[in-house]
Amino acid sequence: MRYLSVLLLSLLPLLAQAVEVGERLAPWTLLDQFDQAYSLDDQTRTLLVARGMDGAKLVKEALQDRPKGYLEARHTVFVADIQRMPALIAKMFAIPAMRDYNYRVLLDRDARVATRYAGAEDKVLWLQLDNGRLVAQQEYATAAALREALEKAPH
């Protein structure tokens, strides 16, 4: 019985509805590393989602040496799924370190946003939006490829 319960719980993420091209993304609001709220709106053109630490590191490397406001100028927001990070580590070390970043990190502490968008744990998911609708999606496995895509993004 215990085995069956574990199996069913492990399959739950597969049952989540993945957003399809042409669909409007459901609204959400998250706090950033400064506890400032951000709500997804129709002005957002690109949504970057890191579902694990490896993806977040790719974003950090891709944005290294980029000026403050770089993502905002491209109407891009970055969501980091930190729900698996122990709360004490997040509060004492990780989030204070993020305050030194020159970009905004929207923190998905309860996995209520990042899990809406299917993607690999070790990659960065790029969702291209037009007035809140998904028009394309792609995953990036290297910081160089992500940086190149960001450079080409309209601003």
UniProtKB/TrEMBL annotation:
<feature type="signal peptide">
    <location>
        <begin position="1"/>
        <end position="18"/>
    </location>
</feature>
<protein>
    <submittedName>
        <fullName>FAD/FMN-containing dehydrogenase</fullName>
    </submittedName>
</protein>
<keyword id="KW-0732">Signal</keyword>
